[in-house]
Amino acid sequence: MEELKRVVRPGGILVLSVPAFNWLWGRHDDLNNHYRRYDFGELIHSKNCFSEANRYILVQDQGVEQPDIESSLGMPALNSVLYLVGSTRAGKVNAMCCSSVTQVTYCSAKVAVAVNKNNLTHDYIKESGVFSLSALGQNQGHMAHYFGRNSGRQMNKFASFKYKRGKTGSPIIEGCPDYYDCQVDHRATIDLDTHTLFVDRVMDASSDSEEPLLTYRDYARDVRNLINDPNMSQRTV
Ligand SMILES: Cc1cc2nc3c(=O)[nH]c(=O)nc-3n(C[C@H](O)[C@H](O)[C@H](O)COP(=O)(O)O)c2cc1C
């Protein structure tokens, strides 16, 4: 972005065509050797390169692989509760937002979680064999956005959020209504090509909060405001 700013004349127009939103990562990106996908806010505000610009025009790509945000949020996704999936490696912690979480057996308590192989959290879970689920409350859309639009590969997401360690050592995020502390059942782990489906035994939980939980649909409703908030995209480009 710094170099682009250098070569654009004052008052000039910069047209950027980039793959949008890291959470839309898929096979298409692997095939095209993409390095990462981008958020509008983070591009504009990265390193304050274009912070003085006050007019942006966002042109939507009509291609099949980059659906507009409402249809991509509304169409394929069940209206699941959103969780922060946290894990640990060599003393470090990381967490990401996740909608693909479901209970699979009640006794013994087991849950399944689908995690994209490109995510840092995936590496942590694969190596440590443990993770936590922190359920998000309805007033925590900003946390879904922050943990779901930034990667621990580029920043320490826990610089601004507190946590405690669960029994497995996984981070349980402070302020979340419910949590589940889980150990991976390696016999039941399934390779889904782009994702891994981790099936896990719940080792410890606190799940009796009566606070309403945040769903995918709640998040989809608020996402445009979150995207346009420069404080929400802190990853350096
Ligand atoms: C609402 C929402 C739901 C998401 N659901 C999933 C999911 O089910 N599985 C997944 O792998 N990534 C999901 N993501 C994307 C990850 O949270 C995102 O790629 C994150 O940046 C990964 O962070 P990490 O690299 O630090 O692990 C979701 C993101 C959002 C905003």
UniProtKB/TrEMBL annotation:
Keywords: Oxidoreductase. It comes from the Bacteria. SUPFAM superfamilies: FMN-binding split barrel, S-adenosyl-L-methionine-dependent methyltransferases. SMART domains: Flavin_Reduct. GO terms for molecular function: FMN binding; riboflavin reductase (NADPH) activity. Residues 75-222 form the Flavin reductase like domain. InterPro entries: Flavin_Rdtase-like_dom, NADH-dep_flavin_reductase, SAM-dependent_MTases_sf, Split_barrel_FMN-bd. This is Flavin reductase like domain-containing protein.
